[in-house]
């Protein structure tokens, strides 16, 4: 974060509090939503190409009066905030470090009409799972070798007459992935280019027949321990593009 960013955030907080002293009508849910989005944007950390990690534990601190008003809305408010924040993370290409948790807390130091957000990443190593999106469904790659094709004996059956019974396989060792064409009749493509064998990175698209298979690496839930106020990230390696696993 640069000095200008820090200054602008300090100015925003000062203006927010100044207006709160003049207009004591209390905080609105839309202002909480805006503060949560801003917190993700501020704390987003690039840990690998095409992977941006953001906190998954967020505590919204409100004045006691505002917290009581928000609590009177029941669980619907947290549900709406959760849906909104997940949508924002998805739109921005963010990866949550674990299960998303949003909590509201009363804080005597917070002025009526203002909101502060504390965020953290669940302690422990972030583990990653490989998945593919096919035809609007998401399939986890739970094995080291997953075969996709038209055949009923494929691990993931693709209902596309342009595919072979065993068309491609995706290899996943927990850190790196590779796609390999299995001698299919019509061939395979990776991001629109013919491919026989290649390393596979998060967000790349394998096309067989007329079907797109989008590969993703997503975070698994980390073991839940006491959250830390220090943001933690984990690094990950980029998948090889030339099929070299060494």
Automatic annotation (TrEMBL):
Family matches, as InterPro entries: Cell_Proc_Reg/RNA_Proc, FHA_dom, FhaA_N, FhaA_N_sf, SMAD_FHA_dom_sf
Which part of the chain is the FHA domain?
Answer: 146-195
Does the record carry Phosphoprotein as a key word? yes
Which Gene3D superfamilies does the record cross-reference, listed alphabetically? 2.60.200.20, FhaA, phosphopeptide-binding domain (DUF3662)
Its domain of life reads Bacteria
Q: Matching PROSITE patterns, A to Z?
A: FHA_DOMAIN (PS50006)
Show the stretches that span the lipid bilayer.
none
Pfam family membership, one: FhaA_N
What are the record keywords, sorted?
A: Phosphoprotein
Region annotated Disordered, chain positions: 184-203, 222-246
Record's protein name: DUF2662 domain-containing protein
Organism of derivation: Microbacterium paludicola
Organism lineage reads as: Bacteria, Bacillati, Actinomycetota, Actinomycetes, Micrococcales
């Amino acid at each position: 974060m640069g000095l200008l960013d820090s200054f602008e955030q300090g100015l925003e907080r000062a203006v927010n509090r100044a207006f709160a002293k003049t207009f004591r009508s209390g905080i609105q849910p839309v202002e909480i939503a805006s503060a949560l989005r801003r917190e993700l944007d501020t704390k987003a950390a690039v840990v690998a190409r095409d992977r941006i990690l953001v906190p998954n534990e967020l505590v919204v601190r409100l004045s006691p009066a505002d917290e009581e008003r928000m609590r009177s809305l029941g669980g619907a408010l947290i549900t709406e905030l959760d849906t909104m924040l997940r949508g924002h993370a998805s739109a921005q290409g963010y990866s949550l470090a674990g299960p998303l948790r949003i909590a509201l807390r009363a804080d005597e130091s917070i002025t009526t009409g203002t909101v502060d957000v504390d965020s953290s990443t669940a302690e422990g190593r972030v583990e990653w799972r490989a998945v593919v999106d096919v035809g609007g469904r998401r399939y986890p790659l739970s094995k080291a070798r997953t075969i996709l094709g038209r055949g009923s004996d494929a691990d993931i059956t693709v209902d596309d007459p342009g595919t072979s019974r065993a068309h491609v396989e995706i290899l996943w060792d927990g850190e790196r992935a590779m796609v390999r064409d299995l001698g299919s009749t019509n061939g395979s493509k990776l991001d629109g280019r013919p491919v026989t064998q290649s390393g596979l990175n998060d967000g790349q698209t394998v096309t067989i027949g007329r079907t797109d298979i989008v590969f993703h690496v997503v975070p698994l839930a980390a073991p839940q321990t006491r959250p830390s106020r220090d943001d933690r990230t984990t690094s990950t390696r980029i998948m090889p593009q030339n099929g070299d696993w060494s």
